[in-house]
Structures are given as C-alpha cells and as structure tokens.
Amino acid sequence: MESSFGYKEIRALQDLISSTKDDSDSDEDLRQNDTKKKVPGDITIQKGVPSDYSRPHAPLKGKDDYDIWHPSEASPASVVTSTLDTSDPREVPEYEIKFKQSVKTEDVFLNMGFKTPGTASCEWLSVSIKLPQEVQEKIELSVDPEAIDVRSPRYRLHLPTPHKVDPNASHAKWHGDTHTLELTLRLVRELDDVNF
Q: Domain of life, per the record (predicted)?
C-alpha cells in the first residue's frame, strides 16, 4: 500500500474541496462578484450634512478663541493656583518628584509579592525642594491631601500632587548643608489595600 499521493490524487482532492463559481447558491458570493473593490481614492465628502453640524470632538467655543479650556472644565484648585502664581512676586524653587516603594527581601529575590517596577506599586511620594540661601526657621510648609504649599521670604511653591496623600503619615526633613527640603508623603489611592 502506497502512502503518498500522486498528482492525479491531489488534483482530484482539489476539485472535490474547491467549489466552482457556477455551483454557488450563496447570495454573498454573488454580491462579491458584482461589487467593485474600494480603494482610498473612493472616499468622498458626505453630501447632505448640514453646515452647523457639530462633530463629536468639535472644539468648545469660549469667550476667547485662544482659550484651551472651557470654563466648565477648569477646577477651582487650578484657578486658585494660576492666580497665586501670577500675583506672587516670589520665585518658584527648583523641585524634583520621585516615587518610592517599600521593598522587602521576598519582593526582590523571591518575587512573592504583587509589586512591579511601575508607579502603581509605590507607597511613597518623595519631593525634594531646593531653597538656596534659606534657613529652616523661615520656611512654612503646608501639606493638604491634594497639594503641597511651601513659603519662605524668597520662594513660593504651590504644587498639586499627582495622587492624594495622607498629611498625617508624611514627614519632612531639612538638609541644611544643601539647603534642600525633603518631603516624604504617604500616597492614598483607591486600590492600595488590594495592591499591598
């Protein structure tokens, strides 16, 4: 018994499997033969669309055409921040924001926890604020759940935090040699109980 197929057997199998165009009873096959293939050049502007039709992503018209935000989209905190920045003559100090994780040995070596290198696995927000020529006694610090406010005779920083923070679980440290205020803020997010 020969196990390989020859040319005639393969040709007979092909005729058996493939259907001819004349034998088709399907309406779809008939429609495919009658329709012309569409190409990008066939796309045209729709006729009959009213000129005042507003598309789903049409820009909102404000008082001034140069506005990028509609008044309904601006939050009160951002309005207060922008007015404080323009009316206060003090400089905005240089600052740096970093996310921190509390990593244990089982997280590093055994991969037993749910931690990832992303910011979603971070529990702390570290903010370093450089305040040259300032002393600790003249710096006022206020930490709210959604913003940090640092004031001194020369500098003023109102910084909204990327996530809500817990002011009571956070702490600050002054580095007198580098004139840097280091804030370590505990992040409070919706799924922190699940992730940690």
A: Eukaryota
